Amino acid sequence: MTDDTQPIRVAAPRGSGAAHALWDVLQTIILSAILFMGINAVTARIRVDGYSMEPTLKDGEFVMVNKLAYWWRAPETGDVIVFRYPRSPDQEFIKRVIGLPGDRVQVVGGKVYVNEQLIEEGYIAAAPRYQIDLTVPPDALFVLGDNRNHSSDSHNWGPVPMEYVIGKAVFVYWPPQFWGVIDQITEGSS
């Protein structure tokens, strides 16, 4: 008959305490590196630099970017995306998708039209003070900053090639008072 109240004894690992501690630290470093590389493979983090996306995004905010968002589907009108700047691909920009390949984009009288349909833009800082009329080429996107009159975007330098798109901006994670999901405005919403 055994006594179930006896504590179970586990043998201590062989070797010195220092060697065991070093092995634990090494395992932690290896696991951390694997996690870091895995997270970087599917996400990016960027800092908003400037005022071109106000009021949606503010200067100095840090944003999480989903790099896998467009592996299974194409960008949609209203998505906030991060991409390499066509004139200097080592720079990253963040803007809102307005026109998709083949769309006709017009900015007339302070209003934006896509394929002759008015886009309700309750999220912009002010109505645009410029005119434009173009058709988005295949494999490209037309993007604008939400601060229409203070943004370097497709109205200045043209559409963004699809291969320059890094991913979809999804979450503001710094500073803490602005934590939250980034509004992705779909067609017909305001």
Written overview of the protein:
This protein is of the alpha+beta class and 190 residues long. The protein has one domain (44-181): Umud Fragment, subunit A (Ribbon). It contains two helices and twelve strands, in the order H-E-E-E-E-E-E-E-E-E-H-E-E-E. The chain has helices spanning 17-42, 154-157; strands spanning 43-47, 62-66, 80-84, 92-99, 104-108, 111-114, 117-118, 132-135, 140-144, 160-161, 165-174, 180-181. The strands form two sheets. Strands 1, 2, 3, 4, 9, 10, 11 and 12 form an eight-stranded antiparallel sheet that branches. It has a four-stranded antiparallel sheet with strand order 7-6-5-8, with no helix packed on it. The longest helix has 26 residues, at 17-42. The chain is elongated and about 85 Å long. The N and C termini lie far apart (76 Å).
How are the elements arranged and paired?
Blueprint: H1 17-42, E1 43-47, E2 62-66, E3 80-84, E4 92-99, E5 104-108, E6 111-114, E7 117-118, E8 132-135, E9 140-144, H2 154-157, E10 160-161, E11 165-174, E12 180-181
Antiparallel strand pairs: 1-2, 2-11, 3-4, 3-11, 4-9, 5-6, 5-8, 6-7, 9-10, 11-12
Give the total of domains: 1
Mean pLDDT: 84
Largest sheet: 8 strands, antiparallel
Architecture, CATH level 2? Answer: Ribbon
CATH topology: Umud Fragment, subunit A
Question: Which segments are poorly predicted (pLDDT under 50) over 5 or more consecutive residues?
Answer: none
Order of helix and strand elements from N to C terminus: HEEEEEEEEEHEEE
Q: Percentage of helical residues?
A: 10-25%
Could you tell me the radius of gyration in angstroms?
25 Å
Give me the number of helical elements.
2
CATH C-level label:
Mainly Beta
Principal-axes shape call: elongated
Strand-pairing-aware structural class: alpha+beta
N- and C-termini, Cα separation: 76 Å
